[in-house]
Structures are given as structure tokens and as C-alpha cells.
Amino acid sequence: MIEDGHCRRTVHAEINGLLFVQGQYENLQLYSTHQPCYQCMKALLTIGIKRVCYLTTYKDEIRDQILEESKQKYGIMIQYFGGS
Which whole-number Å values give the CA distances from 26 to 21, 29, 33, 55, in the listed order? Predict the structure, then answer.
């Protein structure tokens, strides 16, 4: 099932990682090749992620709004490590 060039049957790497660490650690940080989508970002916020680092960005207005609110409300650190 492909929608907008993405397979809807797969689990994103961020969600897969959360399934393994949920409830086991504090001060969680995510290092990813791509900026999380808004669905993954919501899941990361739910478990209390403290820092998100990524190499590749893309436009997602809903996710960007969630990130801005979360940075202000929860002090989450978002870092882009890609080129200029």
C-alpha cells in the first residue's frame, strides 16, 4: 500500500526504537538521518524525549508547529546537523 511515495504498512524507525526503550530510560535522545514526521514526533513527545538530532530536513507544517510548542513548553532540544 503506497501513498505519496511511502509504504503505509511499515513502522517508522523512530516508532520501532520506542517499542524497545519505552519506560526503560530517562533523558532519551533521538539521532536520525531524517527529521521525524509529525506522527513520530507525537510519539516521541509522549514518552518524554529530551533531544532530537537529524541530518535531513523536509517541510511538515503540522510537525513544525508541534516542535515549536514543545520546545517552549517542555524545553525539548531540536538540532539540525545537516549542511548549510
Answer: 10, 9, 22, 24
Query: Parallel, antiparallel, or unpaired: how do β-strands 6-7 and 2-3 relate?
Result: antiparallel
Q: Following DSSP, what letter does each residue of 10-52 receive, concatenated?
A: SPPHHHHHHHHHTTT-SS-EEEEEEPPPHHHHHHHHHTT--EE
pLDDT in tens, 7-47: 667 777 788 787 787 677 788 898 988 888 888 888 888 88
d(CA 23, CA 41): 17
Task: Retrieve residue 31's grid coordinates.
Answer: 539521532
Cell 508547529 belongs to: 65
38-46 vs 13-21: helix crossing angle, rounded to 10: 10
- Cell numbers given for 42: 507525537
